[in-house]
Amino acid sequence: MGRESVPSWCVFDLPGKEQEIARLEQTSTDPDFWLDQAEAQKAMRQLADLRGMVETWRGLERRVKETSDLSDLAIAEGDEGLISEVIGEASQIEATVKRLQFQLALGGEHDRKNAILAIHAGAGGTESQDWADMLLRMYLRWAEKRNYQTQIIDMTPGEEAGIKSATVEVAGSYAYGYLKAERGVHRLVRLSPFDAAHRRHTSFVLVEVMPEVESVVDVKVDPEDVRIDVFRSSGAGGQNVQKNSTAVRLTHLPTGLVVICQNERSQMQNKETALRVLQSRLLEIELEKQEEERARLKGTHVSAGWGNQIRSYVLHPYNLVKDLRTGHETSNALAVLDGELDSFINAYLEEPLAEGIT
Questions:
Q1: Which band of pLDDT confidence, cut at 50, 70 and 90, is reported for residue 218?
Q2: Is the pLDDT of residue 242 over 60?
Q3: Which residues pair with residue 118 across a beta bridge?
Q4: Tens of pLDDT along 79-132?
Q5: Do residues 330 and 163 make contact, with C-beta atoms less than 8 angstroms apart?
Q6: What whole-number distance in Å separates Cα of residue 237 and Cα of residue 335?
Q7: How far is CA 277 from the centre of its chain?
Q8: 237 or 294: whose pLDDT is higher?
Q9: pLDDT at 235
Q10: Omega into 317 within 30° of 0, i.e. cis?
């Protein structure tokens, strides 16, 4: 049960990470280190992450060594009580290793960041707009259960019910790492409450997930590439909002991306928030290009667009939620719609590990 019997350590290259820690520590002592605040903060976050990772695995390594020594002693003395204690500790170590192995799926460069979640109703009018509203509630409930902070940056209500679209900031450790599992098209089958004949309808909603950009170092946007329009907000805020043009629309001319923010009370705050969302969208486009290139080399197709249905939610004639990528399913559809998403997210994140991809 010694170090050589725990293959997971080779994945982390602990000596290599310890060398990187030493390099970053040395760099941080340079008198010019803080001249570039953004780069310095990025380096310090990387240093903190590496220290936490190394301390965790070195601590587990010590537990394995101590338990191995205790096992040898228990066997030599034939002490059944001690043997039982060793078995219990070994089980705890195994559970810890499995948990840490799962974190490999959250080892991406941006996985620790906050997330920008965008929801878009598909064709189908009120039915799809109501489905979009149901998904918005599902994600807000999921975030609440994880003690994540959420803020609705922009929302366009439907004509009769539901929403046409919504953009939400989800703040918390690994928010993007978890929510990236939700990118794609979500399909709902149910008896429509908006159909006088109460017929079964199928609705589609596109969910986009982007890592929140923490600094201009992540994504730089040329001001000349952005057209800024201001208008009166249609959201909450009372007469003050209606009298003043506080809402902001940014159009990124090279890509045609449009971002609207009208949640804040001041035009400056809305502009700053909209720019952050625009940077996040541009970053996600770049990440998708990289992902598609990796998928092309593997001979698989990956897309977060309308052609990629990832999950079906059936409320009639039976209850079933099934993820089409992993095969994971449950008959408790109402629980899922109330935010119980972790089993689906975990199944998606664990799949590359099962395939031996770390």
A1: low
A2: no
A3: 167, 208
A4: 888 889 999 999 999 888 877 777 777 878 788 889 999 999 998 789 999 999
A5: no
A6: 33
A7: 15
A8: 294
A9: 52
A10: yes
The whole-chain average pLDDT of the chain stands at 84
In whole angstroms, how far apart are CA 229 and each of 166, 224, 272, 305, 322? 19, 14, 13, 27, 42
Amino acid at residue number 258: V
The pair phi, psi for residue 322, each rounded to 5°, is -135, 130
d(CA 286, CA 267): 29
pLDDT-derived band of residue 287, with 50, 70 and 90 as boundaries? confident
Q: Which of 8-17, 154-163, 234-243, 324-333 has the lowest mean pLDDT?
A: 234-243
**pLDDT at 211 > cutoff 60:** yes
Phi, psi of 275 (to 5 degrees): -65, -40
pLDDT in tens, 301-319: 445 556 789 999 999 999 9
Looking at residue 282, its amino acid is L
270 φ/ψ angles, rounded to the nearest 5 degrees: -65, -40
Range of lowest pLDDT (15-29, 159-173, 273-287, 326-340): 273-287
- What are residue 252's phi and psi, to 5 degrees? -85, 105
Q: Domains of the chain by range and CATH?
A: 3-106 (1.20.58.410), 115-212+305-354 (3.30.70.1660)
